[in-house]
Amino acid sequence: MHRRRSKIRFISSIFAAFAVFVGYLVVRSVLTMKDVTPKNEKVFSSDNHTFSDITYKVYNNGAKGMSLKSSEVQKVENGSLSFKKLVSNFRISENKRGTISADRTFALDEAAKQCKFIGNVKLSTDDGLSIRTDLSFVDFDKQTARGNSPVSVIQNDMELRANQYDFDLMHQIFTLIDHAEGHIKQDLINADKLIIELADIGNQSVKKVNAIGNALYKSEYYSIRATKCINYTPDNVDAYQNANLVYSRNGTNYDISANHIFGKLKANKVERAKMMGNLVIKFRDSVIYGDEGFFQGNILTVVDNVSILNPKGKIICDKAELNTTTNDMKIYNSKGMISKGISDEK
């Protein structure tokens, strides 16, 4: 009898010790799952290939990390990971964060720093930038995203579209390629390629625009075209190769063409401009040709090899000044017919 009781006590002590050990493992597991610290850890199991409602997290050595949350994670044949309905939060800079989501995502490396996002891709930043596309290759280390599928970009009063894109989120520069078009505030813009630098401060969405190839920028007050490129900032507009500037002043439309047109802007109006090479100015029933021209205030000046055509005749001179308020013109050192309304200044 005493021997039987000793045996029972021994078996009970074994079960108790086993229960304590299991309890220790459970507590340690829970504490480990809750304490995800920034040291290259991944919360998933490589033994089972499919999970539900888990979070996969990766951090770099500088604790500048990201989190990936997915309803399902699978390990595919090449050893990389596949996510369904993924949402990723990542840091762009000290004061800016971003979020990206997609129907399906593939981690292209073990640390998931490079990912391919497919289907209903939505990338947004906490300063209002929103990107929509169906395919995106994202490098979280370099803070870049690129893709060859149609994309739309929205921020504040800017909305742009294209068939390909390349974004540098760290430096706030993005490139739109192939039928790039849209609007910035109320201004229309399109080109074969747009390179846009976003502004950091103020109410301006755009700091600089480089429109390359068959470019057009059209505002409420003027439009400018060029076959090579247009460089635009809120203060300047610069057009190269077959440049064309059209604007209206006092009810008269002025159509100006030249090899190169540089305009100084104020409140999105052309305050002054310089036109260089093969200059042609059309207004009303007159055309002025010259090598170079200047526009400031209400005076439009053309110099070098100047010729003026209108229904009353042709004038050749060294210099012509057109008052855009009265449409009266002064010419200097003229040769040929001088029409009514035109005075010759020797």
Helix-strand layout with pairing:
Layout: H1 2-34, E1 50-58, E2 66-75, E3 81-93, E4 96-107, E5 114-125, E6 130-139, E7 144-147, E8 151-155, E9 158-162, E10 164-168, E11 173-184, E12 187-198, E13 206-212, E14 215-218, E15 222-226, E16 229-232, E17 236-249, E18 252-266, E19 269-283, E20 286-296, E21 299-310, E22 313-323, E23 329-332, E24 335-336, E25 342-345
Parallel strand pairs: 23-25
Antiparallel strand pairs: 1-2, 2-3, 3-4, 4-5, 5-6, 6-7, 6-8, 7-10, 8-9, 9-11, 10-11, 11-12, 12-13, 12-14, 13-16, 14-15, 15-17, 16-17, 17-18, 18-19, 19-20, 20-21, 21-22, 22-23, 22-24
What's the helix-strand series? Answer: HEEEEEEEEEEEEEEEEEEEEEEEEE
> What's the oligomerization state?
single chain
Number of strands: 25
Fraction of residues in helices?
under 10%
Gyration radius, in Å:
34 Å
- Could you say which overall geometry the principal axes of the C-alpha atoms support? elongated
Strand content: over 45%
Q: Biggest sheet, in brief?
A: 25 strands, mixed
The helix-and-strand class reads mainly beta
Taking all residues together, what is the mean pLDDT? 78
Task: Quote the distance from N terminus to C terminus.
Answer: 139 Å
- H/I helix tally: 1
Runs with pLDDT <50, length 5+?
A: 18-54, 58-64
